[in-house]
């Protein structure tokens, strides 16, 4: 087996919303082309941590970090890092599907157009590739120029994944990507995550323990801003080392 390399690393990471200490001295390494699930009770800092990897928290007044976040060994909070470049590398999919009120095609190629790509043939090829990759092509290939808002919730979420993939990121952050979807659409998203990890490093926040078990290689359990435990998912669910992890995964709290 190939030795996996570190893709994302947090080193002594602390994060604050004003005076509130939201993430406490987090050290974590995530391997390339792996799926890592973040689990833990509501408010423990999962989304905050996820959003540090593409600097999504930068928009929040009073938010600050200490310590380092590294992508391919480079500090993404360094002064010379361009956030727009970073977000090409680190794509994100949110809890609620959020397609733009545009056509399916325009949604997928949105990021490419912002980058100045205008050639129709290039955009068409990229759209097809991304829609195939997100397992949506067969369902939408005959209505690419219809409104994305007419798609079902599950299709909209796969469209948002296609939109994220179109700009060729190497990391995909997913914040509870299936929690607003029905079981069948959820299963499709899970299958897709399983497929995508051949090419992408994926980090997923989920409240659904079965989902973490099904899709992730590694799981990180957070509690009150601390990373309590990080392990291979199988190990975490069969023999957690910390009582808090044990209590959470057996449903005693959270
Ligand atoms: N914009 C903000 N301003 C101030 N505090 C915030 C902000 N966003 C989150 N927090 C606080 O930071 C803590 C961690 O929130 P976060 O959303 O990261 O938790 P979470 O584990 O993702 O929760 P959930 O599972 O409910 O989504 C919470 O106490 C929350 O109230």
TrEMBL record:
Keywords: ATP-binding, Nucleotide-binding, Phosphate transport, Transport
Keyword Transport (UniProt): yes
KW ATP-binding (keyword) present: yes
GO molecular function: ATP binding
Stored NCBIfam families: 3a0107s01c2 (TIGR00972)
Gene name in the database record: pstB
InterPro entries found in the cross-reference section: AAA+_ATPase, ABC_transporter-like_ATP-bd, ABC_transporter-like_CS, P-loop_NTPase, PstB-like
Name of the protein this chain belongs to: Phosphate ABC transporter ATP-binding protein PstB
Domain spans labelled ABC transporter: 8-249
PANTHER family xref list: ABC TRANSPORTER I FAMILY MEMBER 17
